[in-house]
Write a structure and sequence with these properties.
This protein is mainly alpha-helical. The protein has a domain at about 45-150: Winged helix-like DNA-binding domain superfamily/Winged helix DNA-binding domain (Arc Repressor Mutant, subunit A). The chain has 7 helices and 3 strands, in the order H-H-H-E-H-H-E-E-H-H. It has a 3-stranded antiparallel β-sheet with strand order 1-3-2. Helix 2 packs across helix 6 (about 110-135).
Length: about 160
Protein backbone atom coordinates (compact mmCIF):
# COMPACT_ATOMS: atom_id res chain seq x y z
CA UNK A 1 0.00 0.00 0.00
CA UNK A 2 2.14 2.87 -1.27
CA UNK A 3 0.49 6.24 -1.07
CA UNK A 4 1.12 9.79 -0.06
CA UNK A 5 -0.09 11.22 3.22
CA UNK A 6 -2.66 13.27 1.32
CA UNK A 7 -4.05 10.10 -0.26
CA UNK A 8 -4.01 8.29 3.07
CA UNK A 9 -6.00 11.09 4.70
CA UNK A 10 -8.24 11.58 1.63
CA UNK A 11 -7.17 15.20 1.59
CA UNK A 12 -7.66 17.12 -1.63
CA UNK A 13 -6.03 20.40 -0.61
CA UNK A 14 -2.30 20.91 0.01
CA UNK A 15 -1.17 20.98 3.64
CA UNK A 16 -0.94 24.41 5.25
CA UNK A 17 2.81 24.02 5.69
CA UNK A 18 5.66 21.54 5.48
CA UNK A 19 5.69 21.46 9.27
CA UNK A 20 2.01 20.48 9.36
CA UNK A 21 2.59 17.74 6.81
CA UNK A 22 5.61 16.46 8.76
CA UNK A 23 3.74 16.40 12.08
CA UNK A 24 0.73 14.65 10.58
CA UNK A 25 3.00 12.16 8.86
CA UNK A 26 4.71 11.36 12.17
CA UNK A 27 1.38 10.97 13.97
CA UNK A 28 -0.04 8.66 11.29
CA UNK A 29 3.14 6.56 11.20
CA UNK A 30 3.30 6.32 15.00
CA UNK A 31 -0.30 5.14 15.10
CA UNK A 32 0.28 2.59 12.33
CA UNK A 33 3.37 1.19 14.06
CA UNK A 34 1.55 1.04 17.39
CA UNK A 35 -1.50 -0.65 15.86
CA UNK A 36 0.72 -3.39 14.46
CA UNK A 37 2.11 -4.18 17.93
CA UNK A 38 -1.32 -4.41 19.56
CA UNK A 39 -1.99 -8.06 18.63
CA UNK A 40 1.28 -9.10 20.30
CA UNK A 41 0.38 -7.23 23.48
CA UNK A 42 -3.18 -8.52 23.39
CA UNK A 43 -1.88 -12.08 23.12
CA UNK A 44 0.15 -11.43 26.29
CA UNK A 45 -2.99 -9.89 27.88
CA UNK A 46 -1.25 -6.55 28.35
CA UNK A 47 -2.07 -3.02 27.29
CA UNK A 48 0.61 -0.78 25.81
CA UNK A 49 1.00 1.23 29.03
CA UNK A 50 1.14 -1.95 31.14
CA UNK A 51 3.89 -3.39 28.95
CA UNK A 52 5.73 -0.07 29.11
CA UNK A 53 5.64 -0.04 32.94
CA UNK A 54 6.86 -3.64 33.13
CA UNK A 55 9.65 -2.89 30.66
CA UNK A 56 10.69 0.17 32.68
CA UNK A 57 10.68 -1.77 35.95
CA UNK A 58 12.66 -4.61 34.40
CA UNK A 59 15.28 -2.06 33.38
CA UNK A 60 15.33 -0.57 36.88
CA UNK A 61 16.37 -3.91 38.35
CA UNK A 62 16.13 -4.83 42.01
CA UNK A 63 16.16 -1.18 43.14
CA UNK A 64 12.81 -0.54 41.48
CA UNK A 65 11.41 2.94 40.91
CA UNK A 66 9.06 5.42 42.50
CA UNK A 67 5.81 6.13 40.69
CA UNK A 68 6.98 9.58 39.62
CA UNK A 69 10.14 8.11 38.07
CA UNK A 70 8.10 5.54 36.17
CA UNK A 71 5.87 8.31 34.85
CA UNK A 72 8.86 10.28 33.54
CA UNK A 73 10.12 7.25 31.61
CA UNK A 74 6.84 6.29 29.95
CA UNK A 75 6.82 6.34 26.14
CA UNK A 76 3.13 7.29 26.15
CA UNK A 77 2.24 9.37 29.19
CA UNK A 78 -0.74 8.18 31.21
CA UNK A 79 -2.53 10.34 33.77
CA UNK A 80 -2.60 7.79 36.59
CA UNK A 81 0.44 5.53 36.91
CA UNK A 82 -0.71 4.57 40.42
CA UNK A 83 -3.87 2.96 39.07
CA UNK A 84 -1.83 1.21 36.39
CA UNK A 85 0.46 -0.18 39.11
CA UNK A 86 -2.62 -1.25 41.10
CA UNK A 87 -3.79 -3.40 38.18
CA UNK A 88 -0.32 -4.88 37.61
CA UNK A 89 0.06 -5.60 41.33
CA UNK A 90 -3.34 -7.34 41.41
CA UNK A 91 -2.07 -9.64 38.64
CA UNK A 92 1.13 -10.37 40.56
CA UNK A 93 3.38 -8.63 38.03
CA UNK A 94 4.51 -5.81 40.31
CA UNK A 95 5.14 -5.42 44.02
CA UNK A 96 5.30 -2.16 45.94
CA UNK A 97 7.07 -1.36 49.17
CA UNK A 98 7.10 1.73 51.36
CA UNK A 99 10.53 3.17 52.10
CA UNK A 100 11.50 2.61 55.75
CA UNK A 101 13.13 6.05 56.06
CA UNK A 102 10.34 8.01 54.35
CA UNK A 103 6.93 6.34 54.48
CA UNK A 104 5.65 8.69 51.74
CA UNK A 105 7.97 7.02 49.23
CA UNK A 106 6.65 3.86 47.55
CA UNK A 107 8.99 1.84 45.33
CA UNK A 108 7.63 -0.51 42.67
CA UNK A 109 9.52 -3.57 41.43
CA UNK A 110 8.76 -6.14 38.77
CA UNK A 111 8.12 -9.66 40.08
CA UNK A 112 9.28 -12.94 38.54
CA UNK A 113 5.71 -13.30 37.18
CA UNK A 114 6.01 -9.90 35.54
CA UNK A 115 9.34 -10.85 33.99
CA UNK A 116 7.79 -14.08 32.72
CA UNK A 117 4.84 -12.17 31.24
CA UNK A 118 6.97 -9.84 29.12
CA UNK A 119 9.83 -12.20 28.19
CA UNK A 120 8.08 -13.63 25.09
CA UNK A 121 7.44 -10.11 23.82
CA UNK A 122 11.12 -9.21 23.54
CA UNK A 123 11.89 -11.18 20.39
CA UNK A 124 8.39 -10.80 18.98
CA UNK A 125 8.60 -6.99 19.16
CA UNK A 126 12.18 -6.96 17.91
CA UNK A 127 11.08 -9.01 14.89
CA UNK A 128 8.09 -6.73 14.33
CA UNK A 129 10.25 -3.59 14.48
CA UNK A 130 12.63 -5.17 11.99
CA UNK A 131 9.72 -5.96 9.68
CA UNK A 132 8.39 -2.42 10.04
CA UNK A 133 11.59 -0.49 9.34
CA UNK A 134 14.41 -2.69 8.03
CA UNK A 135 13.53 -1.77 4.44
CA UNK A 136 15.02 1.67 5.14
CA UNK A 137 18.49 0.22 5.62
CA UNK A 138 21.02 1.14 8.29
CA UNK A 139 22.12 4.47 6.81
CA UNK A 140 18.59 5.84 6.44
CA UNK A 141 17.55 4.51 9.85
CA UNK A 142 20.47 6.38 11.44
CA UNK A 143 19.44 9.52 9.50
CA UNK A 144 15.85 9.10 10.68
CA UNK A 145 16.94 8.72 14.30
CA UNK A 146 19.14 11.81 13.97
CA UNK A 147 16.33 13.85 12.43
CA UNK A 148 13.87 12.76 15.11
CA UNK A 149 16.38 13.63 17.85
CA UNK A 150 16.83 17.07 16.27
CA UNK A 151 13.06 17.58 16.08
CA UNK A 152 12.62 16.56 19.74
CA UNK A 153 15.45 18.85 20.85
CA UNK A 154 14.04 21.98 19.23
CA UNK A 155 14.94 25.37 20.69
CA UNK A 156 12.73 26.53 23.56
CA UNK A 157 10.21 29.17 22.80
Amino acid sequence: MKNTLQERLHQTKPFESLETEAVLSLVVLAQDLSDESMPLLKEADLSGPQYNVLRILRGAGKDGLMCSDISKRMVHRVPDVTRLLDRLEARGYVERERDAADRRVVVARITPSGLHAIAPLDNALKDLHHKQLAHLGEKRLRQLISLLDAARNRPAG
